[in-house]
Amino acid sequence: MTAPVLDKPSAAPGRGTLAGPRFRPGESLFRWLLLACLAVGIIFLISLLTYVLVEAWPRLDSRLWNNFPSIRRPENAGAQSAIYGTIWVISFTALFCLPTGIMAAIYLEEYADPNRWYNRLIELNIQNLAAVPSIIYGILGLGLLARQFGLGTTVLTAALTLSLLVLPVVIIASREAIRAVPQSIRHASLALGATQWQTIWRQVLPAAVPGMATGSILALSRAIGEAAPVIMLGAVTFVMFNPEGLQSSYTVLPVQIYNWISQSREEFHHLAAAAIILLLGILLVMNAAAIWLRNRYSRRW
Q1: How many Å apart are CA 239 and CA 85, to the nearest integer?
Q2: How remote is the C-alpha of 110 from its chain's centroid?
Q3: What is the pLDDT of residue 301?
Q4: Do residues 185 and 281 make contact, with C-beta atoms less than 8 angstroms apart?
Q5: What's the CA gap between 252 and 188, in Å, rounded?
Q6: CB neighbours of 240 closer than 8 A, spacing ≥ 6?
């Protein structure tokens, strides 16, 4: 006895089946409009990258990271002090903002009572601060940290100012990662006798680490590319030494690029383009690390 043969569906359920075979001029026009917008963006991006790469090609060699800046001899100038300054500033920015932002997110998501007015006020201010222009943070750092507190135009002032700039982004990304952990995980841990802190430390945080790491890396990527706050803080554009501590003078890659572009000689423009390629490479490496962390350690509930 043979089994009855079931009729196969004529088409797999999906967008094509739901959309139907009928011709809709408005939908087709909208789809082509979206493709045109995407093509414009990609063409401009490729054109910009190609132009920068062609301009930078004569100076993409070891002189860029081995030599210090020079006004008289641009053919031998480099960006070593700007590279080291960027590493110093971003390292201390991460040291200051990441623990503060993650602990603030844990408190707001796990301990804070959302019905209390002061907790709602804190959440509202964090969301608004994430959209404040970066130049405002530069003015705050100059007036409060550099002048009122007497920290001066040092690595410490720049790191604290950039920490304030990206702190709301770190808090929001960490809260989203913690919120994505299902409540059933917390309930099961508490039902087995664990305390709230043990539940957070052993269950919630390990599951939320990929999301928090991704948001933190993207926030630091934004801090690396910011030029307006450090220009406001008086980052020196011509530095012939590397920073040696928190009280050292400094410069960073965006400020050095701005200085070279403003010069009249053509050699400085090639040098600025090479520094742009270097900065883009650092940003791509950080974004690739964020994507790898998210794909490697993310969990599906």
Answers
A1: 10
A2: 25
A3: 64
A4: no
A5: 49
A6: 68, 69, 81
Number of CB atoms found within 10 A of residue 289's CB: 14
Note the residue count of the chain: 301
CA 183/CA 198 separation, integer angstroms: 15
Q: Cα dist. 227→71, 155, 172, 176, 206 in Å?
A: 21, 14, 23, 28, 35
Model pLDDT, residue 14: 46
Burial class of residue 68 in the structure, from the number of CB atoms within 10 Å of its CB (0-12 exposed, 13-18 middle, 19+ buried)? middle
**To which H or E segment does residue 117 belong?**
helix 117-129
Flag residues of the chain having pLDDT under 50: 1-14
Enumerate residues 6+ apart whose C-beta is below 8 A from 70.
Answer: 76, 77
CA distance 75 to 266: 10
Q: What is the pLDDT of residue 5?
A: 44
Q: Do the beta carbons of residue 116 and residue 281 sit within 8 Å?
A: no
The stretches of 144-204 forming alpha helices (DSSP H) are: 155-179, 183-191, 196-199
Q: Which residue has the tokens 């501590």?
A: 245
Q: What whole-number distance in Å separates Cα of residue 136 and Cα of residue 126?
A: 15
* pLDDT computed for residue 38 by the predictor: 94
Residue 48 makes CB contacts below 8 A (sequence gap 6+) with none
Please state whether the predicted TM-score (pTM) of the whole model is above 0.70: yes
The pLDDT of residue 175: 92
Where does residue 175 rank: exposed (0-12), middle (13-18), buried (19+ CB within 10 A)?
A: buried
Element (H, E) at 128: helix 117-129
How far is CA 255 from each of CA 76, 79, 97, 200, rounded to the nearest angstrom? 19, 11, 22, 42
Amino acid at 133: P
